[in-house]
């Protein structure tokens, strides 16, 4: 039986990836931090909480990683753990760097020492492109110009992954994934904040929704589709980096409009208020990925159209509140 280690198993992508690997008969190890009250809600949502073997560890604690890699010797390691919220990365720049940059070096070093044949996946991001925008889209050849401490930390991790591949011949690769969302997306991220906010307004629990800049454009896909690309990258003959995106871009405002419409509320302008607290010191104005390489080499393509994604998220949040009231 193949085995895999997933860091960040309690986040959004971890549960979707774990579900996919369990369906392929993998034994899945999930690394979690020490909690006073662990939150398994996202794994519960997908019904797989009891199918995973949990191990305590932290990306910033290199000894914990050395022990985990030595004991498990996973065939595949998916490094999804991160301080992944761009907005907080200005306030907690050092912590973001320690987790997202140095943490990845810690993990790669542990693999090199104790399990050098493990295949390694690094969760790289379109935030690395930032202002880099070739011909209106970004692909594997677009230069990086990150705009946040988060983006910068991910550029370090990305190049460290490339360097372990080139220096030691390790099977290490990065998926440069554009924004991907789902009903278990963290509540701070704009799509879930909107779907949750719309649901609260719909069921009478809120009167307004406070947002920052509505003009930035994002290439939003469904997380369930994107974890398939992660898996496929580690099944290749040789390690390479791939952009994973839908190729479509929409403003935050378009997401808002569609979310309210889906809930049957026409006049979204009456509910959405601008709040400067949610604006960023430096913005990434336009992300739109070109995933031709992944489509050709991995046979991967996005399956969930933008309107279906918005609908899925809004309906799931409305159902959550309706179920609570039963
Ligand atoms: P997420 O929901 O924020 O999950 C991140 C997970 O990392 C959480 O479970 C968190 O644990 C864990 N974590 C944080 N710090 C850690 C540490 N020091 N040691 C061990 N675990 C730690 O993120 P996601 O949306 O699933 O994204 C997965 C990965 O893809 C992240 O690396 C993210 O940066 C990257 N990415 C995401 C997107 C996207 O659109 N979703 C796009 C491109 C790249 P706790 O539960 O303890 O907080
Ligand atoms: O949902 P967001 O916070 O996601 P962002 O910053 O694009 O980052 C996400 O995608 C990256 C991939 O490109 C990942 F690497 C990263 O880990 C994360 O998953 O914000 C999206 C846009 C931004 O332009 C932001 O300024 O929405 C804008 N926005 C407007 N009002 C808001 C809000 N964002 C948030 N979170 N909250 C608001 O009230």
From TrEMBL:
<keyword id="KW-0521">NADP</keyword>
<comment type="similarity">
    <text>Belongs to the NAD(P)-dependent epimerase/dehydratase family. GDP-mannose 4,6-dehydratase subfamily.</text>
</comment>
<feature type="domain" description="NAD(P)-binding">
    <location>
        <begin position="5"/>
        <end position="313"/>
    </location>
</feature>
<comment type="function">
    <text>Catalyzes the conversion of GDP-D-mannose to GDP-4-dehydro-6-deoxy-D-mannose.</text>
</comment>
<dbReference type="InterPro" id="IPR006368">
    <property type="entry name" value="GDP_Man_deHydtase"/>
</dbReference>
<dbReference type="GO" id="GO:0070401">
    <property type="term" value="F:NADP+ binding"/>
</dbReference>
<dbReference type="GO" id="GO:0042351">
    <property type="term" value="P:'de novo' GDP-L-fucose biosynthetic process"/>
</dbReference>
<dbReference type="InterPro" id="IPR036291">
    <property type="entry name" value="NAD(P)-bd_dom_sf"/>
</dbReference>
<dbReference type="InterPro" id="IPR016040">
    <property type="entry name" value="NAD(P)-bd_dom"/>
</dbReference>
<protein>
    <recommendedName>
        <fullName>GDP-mannose 4,6-dehydratase</fullName>
        <ecNumber>4.2.1.47</ecNumber>
    </recommendedName>
</protein>
<dbReference type="GO" id="GO:0008446">
    <property type="term" value="F:GDP-mannose 4,6-dehydratase activity"/>
</dbReference>
<keyword id="KW-0456">Lyase</keyword>
<dbReference type="Pfam" id="PF16363">
    <property type="entry name" value="GDP_Man_Dehyd"/>
</dbReference>
